[in-house]
Design brief:
Layout: H1 6-23, H2 37-46, H3 52-65, H4 69-74, H5 77-84, H6 90-107, H7 116-119, H8 127-136, H9 147-155, H10 165-175, H11 181-194
This protein binds iron/sulfur cluster (SF4).
Length: 217
């Protein structure tokens, strides 16, 4: 395959985003029910290896019960495990949520900090979650490299056979203008869920098919 210049990739990405914004004008984070940064952080921890739909079924009761970082930190591990069991990997998730809450109480007056680098050092918060948090609640650009983002970055030919989220974040961060990072992230998730599925991408009705080297048919 002919090597594509960075300038060409940037142009192509710009047109892809333009078309996906038309296709998905309401693209956004699909985790619901949260009102505070900490609640979104909890929902994001719960969403690992779980659908947003399932998380959205569990969070109303959780957020009604736990009103502060202190509440989450004080709850016994086994109680929280039972409450979040249906999201899978519930032992680890409960451990991470309680550790995060305890750290916020100890060092941040119970509030989630808005700084990306500080966020990534907190328990249970990786780069993906930190990017989602800064983009969604702190109004800063963020590239949220989840499974859809990784799959589409490969199919759209911006990376080749790459599954390292940090590398993909770096490469796409250079192709997509910073001010578009958040919109790009939401567009990747929406398109990945609604058209460019993992098993059977629907290239025949894809609005970016002519810009995609992986187009089938
Ligand atoms: S053309 Fe096919 S593989 Fe490419 S983005 Fe569209 S659905 Fe995905």
């Amino acid at each position: 395959m002919r090597k594509e210049s960075l300038a060409s990739k940037r142009r192509r990405a710009g047109e892809i985003l333009r078309r996906l914004k038309v296709e998905y004008p309401d693209a956004r984070c699909e985790l619901e029910n949260w009102k505070t940064p900490l609640e979104l952080a909890v929902a994001t921890i719960l969403s690992a290896q779980c659908t947003d739909k399932r998380v959205n079924m569990v969070t109303p009761a959780l957020f009604a019960k736990y009103r502060s970082a202190q509440d989450w930190a004080d709850t016994p591990q086994e109680v929280l495990e039972e409450e979040i069991r249906s999201t899978g990997f519930f032992r680890n998730k409960a451990k991470n949520i309680r550790a995060l809450a305890a750290r916020l109480v100890a060092d941040f007056h119970g509030e989630l900090p808005g700084d990306f680098d500080v966020l990534t050092k907190l328990p249970g918060i990786g780069r993906k979650t930190a990017n989602l948090l800064v983009a969604t609640v702190f109004g800063q650009p963020g590239l949220v490299v989840d499974t859809h983002f990784i799959r589409l970055s490969n199919r759209l030919g911006f990376v080749q056979d790459e599954d390292d989220a940090v590398k993909i974040e770096r490469v796409l961060g250079d192709i997509v203008p910073r001010e578009d990072w958040t919109a790009w992230s939401h567009a990747m998730v929406f398109h990945g869920r609604r058209c460019c599925n993992a098993r059977a991408p629907e290239c025949g009705r894809c609005p970016v098919a002519e810009l995609c080297p992986a187009k089938i048919g």
